[in-house]
Amino acid sequence: MEYKSFIGGAWEETSASTPNINPSDTSDILGHAAVSEAADMDRAIDAAHTAAVQWAASTPQQRFDVLDFIANEILARKAELGELLSREEGKTLPEGIGEAARAGQIFKFFAGETLRQTGDHLASVRPGIDVDVTRSPVGVVGLITPWNFPIAIPAWKIAPALAFGNAVVLKPAELVPGCAHALADIISRSGLPEGVFNLVFGRGSKVGPQLIGSNKVNAISFTGSVPTGRGIAAECGQLLKKVQLEMGGKNPMVVLDDADLDIAVDASLNGAFFSTGQRCTASSRLVVTEGIHDKFVAALEEKMTALNVGHALRSDTQIGPVVDANQLQQDLDYVDIAAKEGSKVVGGQRLNRDTEGFFMAPALVTETTNGMRINQEEVFGPVASVIRVKDYDEALAVANDTEFGLSSGICTTSLKHASHFKAHAEAGMVMVNLPTAGVDYHVPFGGTKGSSFGSREQGAYAAEFYTTVKTAYTLP
Ligand code: ADP
């Protein structure tokens, strides 16, 4: 399979390509992705710039029809797309199919949003004058996406971009070209005018700066690592360009003495280790009060060590491989760092399976303090640590003592503590008796502090980023 860039309505080959390697079995090459260059990116931007005017003038019905077509095809093919996703990214098949379905649901939601326009018609404070407040498209939006949700994240940026009348240039992550290509293929048959949606493969460090720096690109939405995000924010600040960033997390899951132990263990197991811990919302710091600490650690350890790690497409696999060799090394390094910092580690070793893949046993790190590197830096793998605290007040302070603020969880049967935590957790998302990861598609997603920058993604709030508010005064 050749994954070509899609520029101005045409599929484009490049002389260079990179292999798309299955992390469960490195002998399985799914295809080869084009390596586009800065000049290709320029052509994609030009195509989007030219097409933006036409799409901005499209009717809500035209936008609805395009988004609904994309949604229907994704949902009809969710099993096949989910398998492709699991094969190239390594999450288990149910997780892959779930993510594909979610991408379809996101397009459904934004198909609906095309018809639900909002605006205000008001009287002026001056006599005889009317005031209208409306939303216009931003223009051309550059979308830069990571590898960990290869179809859902592109979907939750593309769908609102198109719904609100913008033209798009998508730069997906190098590791997951298959899902981006499949999505572009569906979009190419949706009735969208040529040039409104463009896909450019290639190295982030080569084609990314071109996208961010172009004066024909009006806004950038990025999901990825903190250092890349900071660089993009600085550049966009200099250019006075609208920017939205979703980056890391070091999400706390507080477990109080009065928690239902089974709920707390299951929420932590899911939040910390499912999707191989490769979620920015992963529950990586388990902040546990002393009365329940030992029981909780014992129960979680037992369930964690029973998890079946293996090939993502096997039906008995619960945890797939790590995405690639670099990420695996980073995960193993952090397990080492935690041990050297004086904590106790269960699991965390490299595993061999009957295929050559990046398999790692989930790791639980106990006897840690919040100041340790393992509790301050994002690992992005199946590694969670436990911090013992005295009571709720200390738990809240520890939960908030981080540079990140994406998702924050608490397991408790106390309404008082749950309510206080919802109000005082320094995070964009708060979960009560639920894992920190796993969110709905119709409500806003995003964080505070070092996790996010700019307005929220998803749900009706996505309009803030993908539109510009215009105030018009008329003297009839
Ligand atoms: P991750 O660790 O998730 O790969 P990155 O921030 O490196 O995080 O990558 C996220 C996305 O940003 C990818 O699509 C990548 O190609 C892109 N990217 C990497 N470097 C740059 C850059 N300098 N400018 C723009 N995009 C970049």
From TrEMBL:
Leader peptide range in chain numbering: none
Assigned keywords, A-Z: Oxidoreductase
InterPro entries (UniProt xref): Ald_DH/histidinol_DH, Ald_DH_C, Ald_DH_CS_CYS, Ald_DH_CS_GLU, Ald_DH_N, Aldehyde_DH_dom
Entries under Gene3D superfamilies matching the protein: Aldehyde Dehydrogenase, Chain A, domain 1, Aldehyde Dehydrogenase, Chain A, domain 2
Record-annotated active site: E246
Aldehyde dehydrogenase domain: residues covered: 15-471
Entries under Pfam families matching the protein: Aldedh (PF00171)
PROSITE patterns: ALDEHYDE_DEHYDR_CYS (PS00070), ALDEHYDE_DEHYDR_GLU (PS00687)
Domain of life: Bacteria
Keyword hit for Translocase: no
PANTHER family per UniProt: ALDEHYDE DEHYDROGENASE-RELATED
Family as reported in the entry's similarity comment: Belongs to the aldehyde dehydrogenase family.
Name the UniProt record assigns to this protein: Dehydrogenase
